[in-house]
Amino acid sequence: MRMVGNASGEIQVYSVEEMSAATATCAIRCVGGVVRTGRAFRICLNDDATGDPVLLSLDWINLYGKVTDSLYPPYSALVQLSGDGVSLLARGLILASSANGD
């Protein structure tokens, strides 16, 4: 489990269950901080330190069949992410949000 600030959150993609051009439903695990719906998440790519960050929005969290607005370690859930970078989502990828959501 990674320690990040209380206002930040990190998730790791376990699997991509469904994907369209603009949204993806993924099984994820919260690996740090608190994850909240409505926040913007950056895709953390080790080989892409330059250029604009890829941002995705966390639309909803389904925790064991119940919709919730937050998630914390070590829980796993189904989530929907939306944005131009959904095609980059893959198993093992870590996404991070910041305290102010950008």
Residues in β-strands, percent: over 45%
The strand count comes to 9
Summarize the main sheet: 6 strands, antiparallel, barrel
Uncertain residue ranges? 1-5
Percent range for helical residues? under 10%
Q: Averaging pLDDT over every residue, what do you get?
A: 87
Written description of the protein model:
- It is a single chain.
- The chain is mainly β.
- Helices cover 0% and strands 53% of the residues.
- It contains no helices and nine strands.
- It has strands at residues 9-19, 23-33, 35-36, 40-44, 55-63, 66-68, 70-71, 76-82, 94-97.
- The strands form two sheets. The protein has a six-stranded antiparallel barrel with strand order 1-2-8-5-4-9. A two-stranded antiparallel sheet has the order 3-7.
- A hairpin with a 2-residue loop joins strand 5 and strand 6 (66-68).
- The protein starts with 8 loop residues before the first strand and ends in a 5-residue tail after the last strand.
